[in-house]
Design goal:
There is one protein chain. By secondary structure, the protein is of the alpha/beta class. It contains 24 helices and 11 strands. Helix 14 links the parallel strand 2 and strand 3. The radius of gyration is 28 Å and the shape is globular.
């Protein structure tokens, strides 16, 4: 517990500078850094001689020196921006270790000076640790890195492949080992003025024979801090509830408590994130100095000047009031993600692969489930058998879904019937069967898969859609833009959607499509705004988490493509509400009355 108290003293020595810094840092990043990065990214298609950039032509970037330069510039700026925050935390903790005060301007200036030094050839190697940090439990050190997520479709692909999943887990383990070995490398690099190579040696030297012990203590102390912060936050919320109950009578108390809780919970979340990152840095700094045989002498370093006690107390009070005021303003901005666009319209909920969360994907059972759950549309994958029969299936081989090692283009309709009869699983349906079941019940997004073996798949799909008079009930989508161009040539009225994991259209309007379907990780508000300016719709896939659904809503997209229709419906219904705040209000005023108040609102 001695180290725990010491770390708290270190970070709280300059806690106001810490929080001021985070607000300034993220505001600068949101308004300047990332605006500039987005501008650079918008230049990529033209720099490579392309009208647009998607997963189909991304390889062309590496053929253009200008495009490669832009990509390197984006990576460089992002790395510097990320490193700057971590270095600022380290500087603050170093001052705290020596029991010295540091102002916001000193913290920014020293962090900037040390960040610029990383450009030196002898130190630039530390940037290779940033990607490693991103995939580790230490990612909270950087508020930016912890928001970077692996796209859901990649995680699903890894999860479906045991070998690749094992490699992925092995890499994560390797990343954590590397970070453990370099645990004291950053402090040594920053404050000892040594090279990256020398900092590696210094870190290994300080960690000798105590790696596991120190790693366990760092994680354990950080976990204890999180528990303590949650306990204090809970106590504060309970105090707010008791106070409101005593001061306000009747229904007004419920309303006042809810408003206060929503605001305070956002502030607490922001402060908690900042302090947890600082505590982790403080823990590393304490062990770094202890392993070097140094002790913290605070008895004389922290002495304050005599006289002027009233002025200092008044200054501290005003400083705290201003900081709380700024935190409330900051929590309500787009910078922190607190400003919720309650009027996000009515985006479609589209069942991915007809709904893959609870029933087998791309099956008639999945379609029925999507209809029962109230989905606005079902997205299904269309492929072509060797005899031209159109089936609903995602993979190019029947192994995963039907248990038979057979390529789709090597099968015919009769083989499909035998497979359905013998597999003991849900039958692989034909597109015609799907259209019959969906007619008049639900819209369909028909994704045409390009395997290189299809022959006239576009005309075959259009013929079936017309046969069942479902032109207004179907959208045709594909990751292959040429397929959509051929569809548009055959039928200028059918709605087309271009699917891509990444997409930068620039000024290219992509006239062959009516909408874009973009992987949620790369979806942005600017992308959605540009699509709407072009008169196109935009959808986000595959959103199976609250974070992903929230991002799609915040971007103002026209549709949410998800495996779990019910979860998406629930999240949309509750979007803008703070469930924890509602639970606390219910604790003091009762569930039934609280629900009545919500109904009145």
């Amino acid at each position: 517990m001695k180290n725990f108290r010491m770390i708290l003293k270190i970070i709280f020595k300059n806690w106001t500078s810490l929080i001021y810094f985070e607000i300034a840092y993220k505001t600068f990043g949101f308004t300047i850094v990332f605006s500039f990065i987005r501008h650079l990214l918008s230049l990529l298609p033209a720099s490579a001689g392309l009208g647009y950039l998607s997963q189909e032509n991304i390889g062309e970037l590496f053929k253009s020196p200008a495009a490669v330069f832009i990509c390197l510039a984006v990576l460089f700026l992002t790395a510097l921006y990320t490193a700057y925050e971590i270095i600022a935390f380290m500087v603050l903790c170093e001052y705290g270790w020596h029991d010295k005060k540091i102002s916001l301007f000193q913290m920014c200036g020293q962090a900037a000076s040390k960040t610029v030094q990383l450009i030196k050839p002898s130190k630039i190697g530390v940037t290779v640790m940033l990607p490693v940090l991103m995939f580790s439990v230490f990612s909270p050190i950087s508020g930016y890195l912890k928001n970077i997520r692996i796209p859901g479709f990649i995680l699903k692909f890894l999860g479906d492949n045991p070998v690749l999943f094992g490699i992925f887990i092995g890499l994560l383990l390797l990343f954590h080992i590397l970070l453990l070995l370099y645990l004291f490398g950053v402090p040594a690099l920053l404050f000892e003025g040594i090279s990256f190579r020398e900092s590696w040696k210094e870190s290994l030297k300080l960690l000798r024979r105590r790696k596991i012990k120190i790693a366990a203590e760092v994680i354990g102390l950080t976990f204890c801090f999180i528990i303590l912060f949650l306990a204090l936050s809970s106590a504060f919320m309970l105090f707010a509830g008791f106070y409101t109950k005593l001061v306000y009578a009747g229904g007004s108390g419920r309303y006042v408590l809810r408003l206060n809780l929503v605001g305070w919970l956002r502030v607490i979340q922001i402060v908690g994130s900042i302090l947890t990152s600082a505590f982790l840095c403080g823990t590393i700094m304490v062990f770094y100095h202890q392993c070097r045989g140094e002790s913290r002498q605070a008895s004389f370093l922290g002495a304050e000047k005599k006289g002027g006690a009233f002025r200092r107390a008044l200054f501290r009070l005003c400083n705290m009031v201003l900081l709380v005021y700024l935190l409330f303003i900051y929590s309500e901005t787009e910078i922190d993600g607190g400003l919720l666009p309650y009027d996000f319209g009515s985006p479609m909920i589209i069942a991915h692969r007809a709904g893959a969360a609870f029933v087998p994907e791309n099956t008639i059972a999945a379609l029925h489930s999507a209809i029962e759950d109230g989905a606005d549309a079902a997205e299904i994958d269309i492929q072509q058998l060797g005899d031209g029969t159109l089936i609903v299936m995602h993979d190019t081989n029947f192994k995963r879904t039907a248990g038979v090692n057979l390529n789709v283009w090597d099968a015919d309709y009769e083989m499909l019937q035998e497979l359905n009869a013998d597999s003991g699983r849900e039958a692989v349906p034909t597109l015609e069967e799907f259209l019959r079941e969906a007619k008049g019940k639900i819209r369909l997004m028909l994704e045409l898969k390009a395997s290189g073996h299809e022959n006239g798949i576009e005309s075959g799909v259009l013929q079936l859609v017309r046969r069942y008079n479902m032109e207004n009930q179907c959208m045709i989508a594909s990751m292959d833009l040429n397929i959509l161009k051929r569809i548009r040539e055959m039928d200028s009225e059918v709605e087309t959607v271009y699917i891509s994991a990444i997409l930068i259209t620039g000024k290219d309007n992509l006239n062959a499509v009516d909408g874009y379907s973009v992987e949620t990780t790369s979806l942005t508000q600017e992308m959605a705004a540009l699509a709407h300016f072009q008169g196109k719709k935009i959808y986000g896939w595959t959103a199976n988490s609250g974070h992903a659904i929230k991002k799609i809503l915040r971007c103002g997209a026209d549709g949410i493509i998800t495996d779990n229709v019910l979860y998406a419906e629930f999240f949309m219904k509750e979007y803008g509400n703070n469930l924890l705040a509602e639970d606390i209000v219910s604790l003091f005023y009762g569930e039934e009355n609280w629900q009545e108040l919500k109904a009145d609102d």
